[in-house]
Write a structure and sequence with these properties.
alpha/beta, seven-stranded mixed sheet, 25% helix
């Protein structure tokens, strides 16, 4: 089974649409802030497009994702970068995420509250416009220096994470 979590009105071919609010693309109504209505070890792929920033407790959601996923399941997440104007434009955004935010789900040192169980397979930061080229160059030299010093000058747009479930 493949899930499009928080699908809203954006269906994805081959995926079961899951959202809190009923609409045309939704196959299963479920609140992502609680227990998901899927059996353990049944999901092979999860897609979340501009959803994670709306979740109250991201570690709790990740525990649920790990529970319902088969070993080595893939999770793709798109979200605005914290320095993107899109991250702050929507008043329903609860979290503003960094290029390094998903590292917490790999780290043993914080697994007492994240519960771990994931590896970041790929991460990508997108830039737009002419000024984005300067940001892209700084980012290529050092993602940490870019986020620490330059991200609000040469603004990025979207983060993409691909994670793998480790069981």
């Amino acid at each position: 089974m493949k899930l499009n979590l928080g699908c809203g009105n954006k269906p994805k071919d081959g995926f079961v649409g899951v959202d809190k609010f009923p609409c045309e693309a939704v196959d299963v109504i479920a609140d992502l802030n609680g227990k998901l209505p899927f059996e353990d070890n049944t999901v092979e792929e999860i897609y979340m497009d501009n959803v994670i920033e709306h979740i109250l407790d991201i570690p709790a959601l990740f525990e649920e994702l790990k529970r319902i996923s088969v070993p080595n399941a893939r999770i793709t997440i798109f979200t605005p970068h914290f320095a993107s104007q899109a991250s702050w434009r929507d008043p329903t955004h609860i979290h503003h995420l960094s290029y390094f935010s998903m590292n917490h789900f790999e780290k043993e040192s914080v697994s007492h509250y994240t519960k771990g169980g994931f590896s970041v397979v790929q991460r990508k930061l997108s830039f737009g416009g002419i000024m984005g080229n300067i940001g892209r160059l700084i980012f290529m030299i050092s993602p940490r220096a870019y986020e620490s010093n330059w991200c609000f000058v040469f603004r990025p747009s979207t983060l993409k994470f691909e994670l793998e479930v480790k069981k």
